[in-house]
Prior knowledge:
Layout: H1 6-28, H2 52-72, H3 78-96, H4 107-126, H5 140-163, H6 168-216
Amino acid sequence: MRLVPWWGVVTAAAAPVLLAVGWIVAASLQPRPFNPVAQSVSTLAARGATDRWVMSLAFLLTACCYVAVGVALRPAGTAGRAILISAGIAGLFVVLSPQAANGGFSLAHAFWSAMGFALLAAWPIAATRRGDSAPWALRLPIAVGAVALFCCLLAWFVAELLAGGQQIGLAERVAGEAQALWPVTVAVSCYLAERQALRGLRVDGDAQPFRLARRSR
């Protein structure tokens, strides 16, 4: 099994933390009360927002984490890794095309945000591996379950957007955090599978001299 480098696990774990810390700190800096349930995260990085660099930096670092994890997840399928890297690149364009001031509509921001959400929802299936030795998070049934969950959460978010609901921010945060947690889930499952494989090699190595001795009798 191809190993996942330590920095891959670290960057995977950093993504959901950076997102959460970013929107908590950015919201606390706003001069007016910010409602995280009703207001979108993008509002914190919109043109004209107070200290918009905080949320923009969080978006940027999270996007870089996705790119790094895509490179590091060597046991995963190549197509899935490429999609995850593409999601990170889409995140970079989200930073470069912030939401318009005063809640205005930005086509570029909407496009790249939708692209990022869609790619993060699709990559688990493309990253799957066959065989009993595959890490559990890279097995097809698990990946299908993850994608189904992401699709349900995104459907909730889109429904809130279209209906002008009062839970837009909550739906966006739940969907974003769920998708951000999946790369670290995959990385940890790969790490545990690697340890199990190495433990099996050690056991076989210790047993080999015993087998040779028995054959020589």
